[in-house]
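WARN no homologs supplied; continuing
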Amino acid sequence: MGRVLVQTADLLTRVAAIVPTPSAALCADDDAWLAFNDLLDDAAGLVAHVLGHPAAPALRELLGSLAGTDAVAWLLTERVLGVLGRD
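OK structure emitted
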């Protein structure tokens, strides 16, 4: 799983880098928050499509290691797992 974990982490890092980190102002504006959620959902859908179900164990492992380090990457990983769970 080492190679899959590295590729999964690399893709998540790249995608998370283009998603803005939620700020107090973003959280206070309902429209901005909805737009952020839509962006995160779209990004998660694309990542899930690229990675597919074989990456789910690597995503679960990454989710545990991301706790408290990178909010966007953690949220993205959580959403990708949700998309894969619905498929």
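The mean pLDDT is 89.
OK
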